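ok new one. same drill as before - structure tokens go in, u give me an amino acid for every spot. 392 of them this time. try not to just spam alanines like last time pls lmao
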């Protein structure tokens, strides 16, 4: 029987960070993961450069049934604390946009940082370990695993969400929660591309690769960022962001959020009356996007001088309020995160400990706290992991 003070299940962002904190307090800690490699999502993240936090992270950047829950952890361990740690390791980074901090070189530097923190504090990290059984007993928790039996005082579940099963995602954390009578809120894919009905997918697929800054809106939430047209549907930051708020309805896409197209069209009609609408739109959008928009929105492709005020208003409205009803999303296969999860009402926001099961903790993405795109999800992993690390 292997005896530990703390067992952390899941060697991802939250689990490794929590283990290092707990071990630094002198606790005897071991992290167990079923995968061959630790931190696989970190390695894939941010296009291989890991968007490890966001300078402007605050509770407003997170979705949760209880929007207040994340505040305590985010305040106890802030983005500035993690940035200081990244600085200690001499990892070079830059702000890409909107406060998003990325490594200059490689996401592997963040995994190295976490593993180095674990080594320094003597936290063990064990991979290729299947957890077969978890039970509560008088001394804490008993675990039966493919590498033998374990007994620990505190058990931390850091197994993440369901997105990207190829990277080792499993519903393990939700099952442990349910085993201990802790509610799990329905899960769905977030930060995920939209798929489209055939009649719109086909013409857009022909111009896949084109990107346009848009304002994507649904459910009273909007993001002004780039939208990318793909051969499967719509992606890019604006779409990934709004996908987390999408519940099946139409999404409003303003294709020209920074320019009043009605005013611009009126001016263009005065200055270049013989220019066709398509050629005018090719000065606002990529040429092939302009052509496709004229076709799918059935815009009148005539010289601007032939368009009356009512028509110009209608054209501008169509481009500012393009309504698209996605067929669905690409699902967990390509989603960056999982919405929903372990109900925060069942956890202490100060420690992440389960209210009904002393010694049992849930951290990271397995919890019903989901960040926007932009480094927020890793910040939640660091903050929730740090908090639990002080109490296990
Ligand atoms: P994580 O998923 O990191 O770790 C869970 C661990 O548990 C894994 O090691 C897994 O193998 C293990 N595990 C699962 N089931 C198990 C079981 N049954 N037994 C044992 N072990 C088990 N966020 C961000 O802020 N900035 C970014 O740049 C990106 N980029 C990004 C790109 C891609 C492609 C994806 C898929 C996701 C992102 N994210 C992101 C989101 C971010 O990666 C995610 O929110 C965090 O990794 C969550 O950290 P956790 O530690 O909670 O789970």
């Amino acid at each position: 029987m292997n005896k530990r003070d703390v067992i952390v299940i899941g060697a991802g962002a939250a689990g490794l960070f929590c283990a290092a904190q707990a071990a630094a307090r002198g606790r005897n800690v071991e992290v167990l993961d079923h995968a061959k490699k630790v931190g696989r999502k970190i390695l894939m993240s941010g296009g291989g450069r890991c968007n490890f936090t966001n300078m402007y992270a605050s509770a407003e950047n997170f979705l949760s049934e209880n929007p207040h829950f994340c505040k305590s952890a985010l305040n106890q361990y802030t983005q500035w604390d993690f940035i200081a740690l990244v600085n200690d390791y001499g990892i070079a980074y830059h702000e890409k946009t909107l406060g998003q901090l990325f490594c200059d070189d490689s996401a592997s530097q963040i995994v190295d940082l976490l593993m180095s923190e674990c080594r320094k504090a003597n936290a063990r990290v064990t991979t290729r370990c299947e957890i077969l059984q978890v039970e509560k007993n008088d001394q804490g928790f008993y675990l039966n695993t493919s590498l033998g039996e374990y007994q620990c005082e505190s058990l931390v579940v850091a197994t993440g969400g369901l997105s990207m099963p190829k990277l080792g995602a499993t519903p393990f954390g939700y099952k442990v929660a349910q085993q201990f009578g802790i509610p799990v809120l329905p899960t769905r894919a977030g930060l995920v591309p939209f798929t489209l009905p055939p009649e719109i997918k086909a013409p857009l697929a022909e111009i896949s690769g084109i990107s346009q800054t848009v304002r994507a809106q649904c459910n009273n939430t909007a993001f002004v960022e780039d939208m990318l047209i793909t051969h499967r549907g719509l992606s890019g930051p604006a779409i990934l962001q709004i996908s987390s708020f999408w519940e099946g309805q139409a999404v409003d896409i303003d294709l020209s959020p920074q320019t009043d197209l009605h005013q611009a069209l009126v001016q263009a009609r005065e200055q270049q009356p013989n220019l066709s609408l398509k050629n005018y739109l090719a000065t606002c959008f990529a040429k092939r996007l302009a052509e496709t928009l004229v076709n799918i929105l059935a815009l009148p492709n005539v010289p601007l001088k032939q368009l009356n005020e009512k028509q110009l208003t209608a054209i501008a409205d169509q481009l500012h309020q393009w309504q698209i009803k996605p067929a669905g999303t690409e699902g967990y296969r390509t989603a960056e995160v999982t919405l929903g999860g372990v109900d925060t009402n069942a956890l202490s926001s100060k420690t992440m400990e389960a209210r009904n099961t002393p010694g049992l903790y849930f951290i990271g993405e397995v919890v019903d706290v989901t960040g926007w795109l932009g480094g927020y999800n890793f910040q939640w992993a660091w903050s929730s992991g740090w908090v639990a690390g002080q109490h296990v």
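The first helix runs from residue 13 to 24. and btw The CA atoms of residues 74 and 383 lie 5 Å apart.
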